[in-house]
Amino acid sequence: MNMRAILLFTGVALLFVGTGIIQSWNVSLTILNMALISAIMALGVNMQWGYAGLFNVGIMGFVALGGLGAVLVSMPPNTEALAAGGLRIVAGLSLGAATVIGAILVFRKAGKWRGWAVAAVLFVGFFAYRAVMDPGVIAVEAVNPASSGNIGGLGLPVILAWPVGGLLAAGAAWIIGKTALGLRSDYLAIATLGIAEIVIAMLKNEDWLARGVKNVIGLPRPVPYEIDLQNSQSFIETVTEFGFDPVTASTITVKLAYAGIFAVVLIGLLWLAQAALASPWGRMMRAIRDNEVSAEAMGKDVTARHLQIFILGSAICGLAGAMMTTLDGQLTPGTYQPLRFTFLIWVMVIVGGSGNNFGSVLGGFLIWWLWVQVEPLGALLMEGITAGMADGTWLKGHLLDSVAHMRLLTMGLILLLVLRFSPRGLLPEK
Amino acid sequence: MDFLNALVALANFVIVPALAYGSQLALGALGVTLIYGILRFSNFAHGDTMAFGTMATILATWAMQSAGISFGVLPTALLALPIGIAATGLLLLGTDRLVYKFYRVKKAKPVIFVIASLGVMFVMNGIVRFIIGVDDQQFADGERFLITARDFRTMTGLEEGLAIKTTQVITVAVAIIVVAILFWFLNKTRTGKSMRAYSDNEDLALLSGINPERVVMYTWLIVGGLATIAGVLYGLDKSFKPFTYFQLLLPIFAAAIVGGLGSPVGAIAGGFVIAFAEVTITYPLKKLLGYLLPDSLAPDGLVQLLSTDYKFAVSFVILIIVLLFRPTGLFKGKSV
């Protein structure tokens, strides 16, 4: 950390302190919590882009898979639904997996008719899978559709769900990486764009899994509930002793608890990432990024290394996704927008300084703060512009309604300007 | 009779819609593939370019409608198309000057161009939402159907009806005309030949005195035209919604890659492959099988292979298969 980094981090810290003083500490901590998660996502993307030059535009999909992991681990199991269709679903999924593995095995056995043989295996397997799976899905979705209608989860503590979310994302990343890595760089971008859309489509439609667009709400929390704190005698005594209002104090305590857990994860990951970057492995990665041909000539397996780092980076995004779902306490597939979960993270990495872990973290904090604050600022600006216009005119109403779209424009401009005039970002790689 | 009914049902629900959708995808993929061939990057802003062009055309259409201009049985949007194309062409030339030219002069890596196009996508998306909003816009006017299902039934006496929308016919007709002009331009004119030369071998083209900036300028203008036409046809056929246009990016890329990036013929073939696969796989086959199979074997369920919400999965799976087995695409494109 040099002088520049310290100054910039202090500046961002002042933004949050300023928000706390001018608006309220609740607002500031809400932004901070999501900023911590965004910083972790940016760290994952920076591994892929900064260390290895891999262009991933499917961050949203990995984040959503992490959220699914949180639901599947932490929600209580829905025993009635499991009894109704659980076995069939497990059998159906295994059948589907067996079909794919069978097709791959048939394909490996080279022969004259192998194309047809693979097609036949897939065709039969698909219908068998649907035949076994569909009744199970219908049975599960019929159980209490208004309140559940899904298989529920394992009922384990939600913290355990975070690594599981990472694992789910890593699995998806393995499939993508296996196919698209080793080809030209744009292909990976297009393939990740596709997988993200499919993950979201799956979350929205597979009601048996996580209730689809009906949303899963009320995920267990790793921190106490505000209402419990307000009812606890010892808590009230402690805060009134310091002269705080118990209600405000309870909300702030909960947010601080979240911030504490998230900060521990972030610092741990940052330490690991820095250690990895300084190790021989990190040197090899940078060598591959800077010149693939010579790295290959030195005997490095470029595609395998790329696959490795792509999986690692995606797993971190999945972990962050699980943390985000925990913080929200709900999984709402309808709210996953590529703009918010993919491109915003890219802006963070590029603005912060690609290749520099501290830069990504800084970008995460700064851009998230801007993302939240640009809207009120934009509204203020628009009100200023339209102040002179007569009330009720068409243009005035249109301009005021369009404030919500200012974010897109601002983020796009920030990305383009930084890429053009300061491509190494706020904290350049050494 | 049953066989004829099955054929009509197939035409009504699969062949006609897929032909129209395929033409729209093919025009979109042609734009992507041209940019790839000449400027050598995958343009992520293409979906939003289409949205911008469509928006400009819609605004011009509204202006014409309020001025009392109409195109008879055809949609007014076709008259407004040149205005939309001009606006989009200007926008693309502007973004090239402001954004891409800098990286071209610096000979930046293709992935930097892709990131820049991402930024452009944001800005264009913002502009479109800012001007027209995020809601659905229906702007088709004129005659709705060429043949309605009821007319077809009384005409032929078959049980199944075949409805052909005017917009579907217009889509296919316009696509054929545009593709014919494009291929004539690329193969016969001096500028078109210099574009192909530049795409094949940049250094050799420069040596023989081709002005790269001119080639790039014509490429953007043609791409603007193709994107606007593709977008307007899609909007006429379905409806205009900015977010849908962003999502069209995936099938369009899939079409361009399936055909072979950089190959115009491939882009057209790819567009139809993707469209037919998507429509067939998400269409419930119950009716069709009901006609073809004896009653005892007729299926109970809908026999829909995948629900329509998974249509992206279809393009994606085709994309993955092509990447795995034939990364250069059907018509040998580039795969550097």
From TrEMBL, chain A:
What's an example of a GO molecular-function annotation for this chain?
branched-chain amino acid transmembrane transporter activity
Q: Could you tell me which InterPro entries the record lists for this protein? A: ABC_transp_permease (IPR001851), LivM-like (IPR043428)
Q: Does the keyword Zinc apply?
A: no
The keyword Plastid is annotated on this UniProt entry: no
* Pfam families referenced in this protein's UniProt entry, alphabetically: BPD_transp_2
Q: Where in the cell is it found?
A: Cell membrane
Membrane topology value: Multi-pass membrane protein
What PANTHER family does its record include?
HIGH-AFFINITY BRANCHED-CHAIN AMINO ACID TRANSPORT PROTEIN BRAE, HIGH-AFFINITY BRANCHED-CHAIN AMINO ACID TRANSPORT SYSTEM PERMEASE
Q: Which GO terms describe its cellular component?
A: plasma membrane
> Where does this protein come from, organism-wise?
Jannaschia pohangensis
Top-level taxon of origin: Bacteria
| Annotated protein name in UniProt | Amino acid/amide ABC transporter membrane protein 2, HAAT family
Q: Where are the transmembrane segments?
A: 30-47, 54-75, 81-106, 113-131, 151-175, 187-203, 256-279, 343-371, 404-422
Q: What is its main location?
A: membrane
Keyword terms: Cell membrane, Membrane, Transmembrane, Transmembrane helix
From TrEMBL, chain B:
Keyword annotations of the record: Amino-acid transport, Cell inner membrane, Cell membrane, Membrane, Transmembrane, Transmembrane helix, Transport
How does this protein lie in the membrane?
Answer: Multi-pass membrane protein
Compartments, as annotated in UniProt:
Cell membrane
Q: Which InterPro entries does the UniProt record give?
A: ABC_transp_permease, BCAA_transport_permease
Tell me, which GO biological process terms does this entry list?
Answer: D-alanine transmembrane transport; L-alanine transport; L-isoleucine import across plasma membrane
User: Main subcellular localization, coarse class?
Assistant: membrane
Cellular component annotations (GO), alphabetically ordered: plasma membrane
Q: Does the keyword Transmembrane helix apply?
A: yes
Example of a GO MF term:
L-valine transmembrane transporter activity
Where does the source fall among the domains of life? Bacteria
Q: Which residues cross the membrane?
A: 6-39, 51-73, 79-99, 111-132, 162-186, 215-236, 248-276, 312-331
Q: Extract the Pfam families matched here.
A: BPD_transp_2 (PF02653)
Give the family this protein belongs to, as stated in its UniProt record. Belongs to the binding-protein-dependent transport system permease family. LivHM subfamily.
Name used for this protein in its record: Amino acid/amide ABC transporter membrane protein 1, HAAT family
Q: Which organism is it from?
A: Jannaschia pohangensis
